Amino acid sequence: MKQQISLDINGRVYDLVISHRDLLVDVLRKKLGLTGTKKGCGNGDCAACTVQVDGEPTLSCLTLAISCQGKKIITVEGLAQPGGALHPIQEAFVNQGAIQCGYCTPGMVMSAKALLDKNPKPTLEEIKLAISGNLCRCTGYKRIIEAIEIAAATMSAQEVK
Amino acid sequence: MYTNEFEYLAPTTPAEAFELVGRLGSKARILAGGTDLVVLMKDKLTSPEYVIDIKNIKEFKGIKYELGKGMTIGATTKISEVQYSEIVQEKYPALAYAASQLGGTQVRHMGTIGGNTCNASPSGETPTPLVALGAKVVLSSAAGERELPLEDFITGVRRLDLKEGEILTRFILPEPSPKSVSRYTYAGARDAMEIDCVNMAVNFELEDDKETIKYVKFVLGSVFIKPLVSKEVPALLIGQKFSDALVEKAVAAAQGEAKPISDVRASEWYRNEMVGNLTRRLLKEAFAAAREV
Ligand SMILES: Cc1cc2nc3c(=O)[nH]c(=O)nc-3n(C[C@H](O)[C@H](O)[C@H](O)COP(=O)(O)OP(=O)(O)OC[C@H]3O[C@@H](n4cnc5c(N)ncnc54)[C@H](O)[C@@H]3O)c2cc1C
Ligand code: FES
Ligand code: FES
User: Which of A44, A50, A131 faces B35 most closely, judged by CB atoms?
Assistant: First the structure.
């Protein structure tokens, strides 16, 4: 079944024709060229594909694109600040060396964003929980956790969303 | 990997959903959070012609509690909502804790409590505490509703007493006895994102002397084809004063009743050891908590 739908992604409405079976991750990457979102396992196990749907951290590899009509989708591309500056979470990841190969990074950043939107001052334990579904095979997680702590502090100070 | 081609349907009212589920029968699958179904469809373990998404039906979601009457939890309530609900944490702590241990953050924000039961995996996280807490399921269709204890609804591995045309719409939890406590524990390879090799829940109450056991419902998960309601542990404990020696008898009884299998996650021997260790830990934890209420 093909159908025309509208998706609200990063504040812009896209009209596109999709198959009912199309997964959000494939629509983002292949139809819209938003390749920031990564597909790792395709089975829910790695969270590289995490985006926000109506604010919630969502695995785009297990989400039917058609089910996202009328919802607000934010991908890593949507984090850019006015003038193209990096979001404080992204900046903290860069500064802390929380990125090696980078494949897990968009999913980590989006999971951190979903956490900090709801809970601007998370404890260490809450940060670990928020990324407990995200796999990283390079960094050992320590610097990722530190980056999220720093981002939380910066964002609270600057009142960035 | 792709799923088969199918037609996606998203009813917004219960009546529309019942009509679709009734008319399309076995050609359709119900979709809630999709964290089980989409994986199964990608693996081609199921290839429905229609997928009926029930998440947009507001009557099927949400947590309602009335003092003295108990709680209803809509089938499409997210696992994360159950985990963070203050009233669930207060009245049914075993359920809130089990919800907090399911998958990772993303899976808990997508997956639903109804999907966890309807997936009917023996290692499922929430059916075990729900059964211990005396939960009933409400199965609804165009023809009406029926209620069933959860332990009778799940009949085996991926098997339910769900008739064609029916949707699980909500869980009903009785008001907990004021002096009772509920607890949940599990064992798996790591904390996050694993599937339990054994889990268990208990609903437990002491007499006013704070020594004698008044009530126990003890349920084991992942050691049988469905949540296993222990008969022997309550028979041993009720009316007796709590002691280490009594706990050891209960441990042996639980190990005798469990029928674990060997699989990718653990051997039969390991599971049996874990049944013993967890039973001991859980009963002691419940006893300590029950003395405080
Ligand atoms: C990475 C990962 C980790 C996981 N970890 C755990 C874990 O630790 N513990 C655990 O227990 N589970 C785990 N799961 C499994 C899954 O997330 C849970 O079982 C979840 O609660 C399923 O809910 P859902 O809404 O996503 O179900 P769906 O996938 O939408 O549905 C599951 C099944 O139930 C049927 N169904 C759903 N709702 C209804 C209804 N209301 N009436 C009738 N039928 C219905 C569907 O047709 C389907 O057959 C994990 C899954 C993933 C991907
Ligand atoms: S690609 Fe979605 S969880 Fe791995
Ligand atoms: S940086 Fe390589 S997987 Fe995380």
Answer: A44
Q: Chain B neighbours among A 35-74 (CB < 8 Å)?
A: 42-45, 47, 50, 56-59, 62-64, 66-67
Q: pLDDT digits over A31-79, tens only?
A: 999 999 999 999 999 999 999 999 999 999 999 999 999 999 999 999 9
CA-based nearest residue to B237, from B260, B261, B257, B212: B212
The answer to whether A108 faces chain B, any CB pair under 8 Å, is no
> In which residue ranges of chain A is CATH 1.10.150.120 found?
82-160
Contacts of B55 in chain A (CB under 8 A): 67
Nearest CA to A57 out of A136, A123, A143, A119 is that of A119
Ligand 3 centre distance from Cα of residue A97 (Å)? 11
Residue written as tokens 């090696």? A100
How far apart CA B72 and CA B137 sit, in angstroms, is: 10
- Alpha-helix runs per DSSP H in chain A: 24-26, 88-96, 105-118, 124-130, 142-158
Is A66 in Cβ contact with B8 (below 8 Å)? yes
Same domain, B165 and B225: no
Distance, in Å, from the CA atom of A160 to the CA atom of A120, rounded to the nearest integer, reads: 10
Q: What CATH number was assigned to the domain covering residues A82-160?
A: 1.10.150.120
Q: Is the ipTM of this complex over 0.90?
A: yes
What one-character-per-residue DSSP string does A57-74 give? EEEGGGSBGGGGTTSEEE
3-state helix, strand, coil in chain A (%, to 5): 45, 20, 40
